[in-house]
Amino acid sequence: MWTSRRLAVAGRTALFAAGLAALAGTSALAFDGMSAEQRAVLEAAQVAQADISADAEAAGERTIFDGVYTDEQAERGKEFFNSDCASCHANSARGSSAAPGLIGYTFDSKYAEQPLYNYFDFMRTNMPPGNAGWFIDQEYADIVAYLLSLHGAPAGDSELEGTEEALSAIMIVPTPEG
To answer: CA 92, 159, 141 angle in degrees (round to 5)?
Structure first.
């Protein structure tokens, strides 16, 4: 069984390895240029990520990559995001000089191995600045669905519910390689 500390270490290791891989590029020649230590870290991170995914699957836990929202919901979220969030976080949600990114590395590094509820709750209690709670919970869930779609998480057949119970049952995991 993975403890939260072991998950955090594995998550950080996976993120470090992903950063190494990104720096190295994707060609076989780039990996030839890596030191033995860098290759070992990358391989260990891949094994750790596979173990985390297998443990989550065995425990019946859902992750953000299990189709936890619908395309229609993401479209609704896109409308809310464009009207109230994009001016600070940019249309791509990758951030700007005014606000941090909400997807990609920022999302993976800040929220990996946490329930999706933590991400949702931060958004709901802090955004938009000076007007937190502007949306109802389901509208915040729609925005989260849109951000998950931008992050690369696939859509599914059921809408993401804007409740603590539903969102706490879905884990944020680092973006799988591939």
So the answer is: 50
> Is 177 domain-assigned?
no
Q: How many whole angstroms separate alpha carbon 94 and alpha carbon 111?
A: 15
99 pLDDT above the threshold of 90: yes
Asked if residue 79 and residue 41 are part of one domain, the reply reads: no
**Looking at residue 49, what is its pLDDT?**
52
- Amino acid 74 reads A
> Global pTM?
0.68
Q: Note whether residue 167 is domain-resident.
A: yes
Tell me: do 47 and 108 sit in the same domain.
no
Look up residue 134 and give its DSSP letter.
Answer: -
Residue type at position 158 = S
pLDDT band at 16 (very low <50, low <70, confident <90, very high): very low
Rounded CA-CA distance 3/94 in Å is: 31
Residue 41, judged by CB atoms within 10 A of its CB (0-12, 13-18, 19+), counts as middle
Give the total number of structural domains in the chain: 2
**Pair of tokens at residue 167:** 């969102």
Residues 106 and 86 in one domain: yes
What is the DSSP code (8-state) at residue 154? P
Beta strands 170-172; 62-63: pairing state: parallel
